[in-house]
Specification:
Number of strands: 26
Distance between the termini: 52 Å
Radius of gyration: 18 Å
Number of helices: 0
Helix content: under 10%
Largest sheet: 16 strands, parallel
Low-confidence stretches: none
Length: 235
């Protein structure tokens, strides 16, 4: 199923491509937000520009491939991405999901593009978020849930020429895997973690590389902080 141009309208859009692909070659709902969007089944979903709905759920049950920078907006509803999100091979595309409701994603890999997930009134739950760059600076990762908890897998913003920044802000508690903003050359990225409740992470590696310095790590909480893992210093 291929949409060659933009898609707009207030009605519900439900797609089932079976073993085929769903391809959006332009933005969806950015002029007139869709009533809702559910992709029941597809081998892959290709997204360019992004998707917006009028306060209703966005649900993907298949992997998605970003062919350009993409922004998902669900208003007062939820965003659920049950399949992994990737950028096309050799590209670095930014990805951002904004909603008042809960945001839940599988793995997201951007090839060095930025990742930003923000739930205004709900929770943010993700698997591994990988904004690492093998050739340039790592992308930034920002997770924000001012009214709810944040739970994430590993957060990787490592870069060859500089680490990306990682910021996790919650109105409740924060639980993540390992956080890596290190680099082989230049400055390591900064890490900022700020909830009122408990914080649990794996390790935090903000090492700088040749000609650079390590990044700043700032953790502020009114309760407990725990790091459950460790890493080996490159020296």
């Amino acid at each position: 199923i291929t949409f060659a141009g933009t898609v707009d309208g207030t009605k519900q859009l439900q797609l089932d491509a079976g073993q085929g692909n769903v391809r959006f070659n332009a933005a969806v709902g950015f002029v007139t937000p869709l009533g809702s969007l559910e992709i029941i089944k597809a081998q892959n979903i290709f997204v360019a520009g992004g998707i917006a709905t009028a306060n209703s759920d966005i649900t993907f049950n298949s992997p998605a491939i970003l062919t350009d920078d993409a922004s998902f907006k669900a208003g007062a509803a939820n965003i659920t991405l049950n399949g992994n999100i990737f950028t096309e091979t050799g590209e670095a595309n930014d990805f951002s999901a904004t909603a008042d409701g809960n945001i839940r994603t599988a793995d997201i890999t951007t090839g060095g593009g930025n990742i930003s997930l923000s739930s205004n009134k709900g929770t943010v739950t993700t698997a591994t978020l990988d904004a690492a760059s093998a050739a340039g600076k790592g992308g930034a990762i920002a997770l924000t849930a001012p009214a709810g908890a944040v739970k994430a897998g590993n957060l990787n913003a490592r870069g060859a020429t500089g680490g990306g920044n990682v910021a996790v802000i919650s109105g409740d508690r924060i639980n993540t895997g390992n956080i890596d903003v290190s680099t082989n050359k230049g400055d390591g990225g900064n890490v900022f973690i700020d909830p009122p409740g408990d914080v649990e992470v794996g390790f935090i590696n903000a090492q700088g590389g040749t000609g650079g310095k390590g990044g700043n790590v700032d953790i502020t909480t009114e309760r407990f902080f725990r790091a459950t893992s460790a890493f080996t210093d490159r020296n």
